[in-house]
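tokens incoming
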């Protein structure tokens, strides 16, 4: 009897030990599964957040535009500026506007840094009497934009970029045998055959007469220089960094003007449209606003904050699908800015002088 009780007791003891082991194994298995699942979920959440975070985008931004910062502290400062600009851009794009913005190569700059980088100059009217234009009606939309977009590069000489673009168009027009019936695309085919010297204007056509001054010139000064001296081809007068000398004794001149600089009646759209029917026109615009700086697409219809300080080339006009009249402008900030280097600005037809969007009609000139 005692033996049976002993056997029964041992059996219960062994069964209890087995049950305890089985129970702990189950608990550990459940804990392990929960741990693995939580790790996976955490990784997914982290990856998802990092993929769309401003920090991830900033890394992409740095790689895309080949940005370099001298220290980790500067890197963090620029990332903060980028994040702030990106938030403003996203907030703008979420609203109802006629144009969209994007974080372009200027997104790591404060307003002050951007202004300093682009050497935006105070407005100084051209010292030339505006030319009167006859009454007329615009018969068709025009677009002279079938050409590459220049980038100012490190020099930031927007006046030279706009001027050379204008001059190369004139060269193409002057050497066309079908001028009256020529389409813009044919003009640019002519243009490809001859490039003019960017460097010569930097070296010789500056307003302070010291040579090679990126920001010390304007288109009217350049046109008057070409009236007196002509201009060389890029092959005859190539680009060198820091020339600081003027070599205008080259005998082979590609282009020369009879009258020099001509200006257009300010703050009126029709005289500008009239000249645009024949050729592009250089305009002096306000470009320091947040909306212009980060422009991507659409038509700018809102006032550009800031003051006049940037030359660009007016290359066309047209009407949007929604019936908005617009000017088409070729900027000098490279093809990665805006709509492949271009921007559309609302055109307002006015009979009396009045401010325009981005002050596009405030001051305009062309050579003759």
């Amino acid at each position: 009897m005692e033996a049976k009780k002993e056997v029964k007791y041992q059996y219960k003891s062994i069964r209890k030990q087995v049950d305890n082991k089985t129970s702990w194994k189950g608990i550990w298995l459940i804990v392990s599964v929960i741990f693995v699942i939580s790790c996976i979920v955490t990784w997914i959440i982290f990856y998802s957040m990092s993929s769309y975070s401003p920090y991830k985008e900033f890394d992409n931004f740095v790689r895309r535009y080949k940005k370099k910062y001298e220290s980790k502290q500067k890197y963090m400062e620029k990332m903060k500026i980028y994040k702030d600009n990106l938030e403003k851009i996203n907030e703008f794009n979420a609203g109802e506007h006629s144009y969209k913005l994007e974080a372009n190569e200027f997104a790591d700059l404060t307003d002050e840094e951007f202004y300093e980088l682009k050497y935006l100059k105070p407005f100084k009217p051209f010292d030339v009497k505006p030319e009167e234009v006859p009454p007329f009606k615009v018969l068709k939309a025009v677009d002279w934009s079938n050409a590459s977009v220049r980038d100012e590069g490190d020099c930031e000489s927007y006046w030279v970029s706009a001027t050379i673009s204008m001059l190369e168009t004139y060269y193409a027009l002057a050497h066309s045998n079908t001028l009256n019936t020529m389409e813009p695309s044919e003009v640019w085919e002519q243009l490809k055959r001859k490039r003019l010297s960017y460097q010569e204007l930097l070296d010789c056509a500056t307003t302070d007469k010291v040579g090679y001054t990126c920001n010390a010139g304007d288109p009217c000064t350049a046109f008057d220089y070409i009236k007196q001296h002509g201009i060389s081809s890029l092959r005859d007068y190539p680009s060198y960094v820091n020339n600081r000398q003027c070599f205008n004794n080259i005998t082979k001149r590609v282009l020369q003007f009879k009258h020099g600089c001509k200006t257009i009646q300010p703050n009126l759209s029709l005289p500008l449209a009239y000249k645009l029917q024949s050729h592009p026109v250089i305009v002096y615009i306000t470009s320091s606003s947040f909306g212009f700086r980060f422009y991507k697409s659409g038509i700018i219809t809102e006032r550009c904050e800031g003051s006049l300080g940037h030359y660009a080339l007016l290359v066309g006009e047209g009407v949007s699908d929604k019936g908005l009249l617009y000017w088409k402008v070729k900027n000098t900030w490279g093809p990665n800015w805006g709509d492949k280097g271009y921007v559309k600005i609302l055109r307002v037809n006015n009979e009396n002088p009045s401010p325009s969007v981005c002050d596009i009609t405030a001051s305009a000139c062309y050579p003759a």
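note: Residues 2-51 form the longest helix (50 residues).
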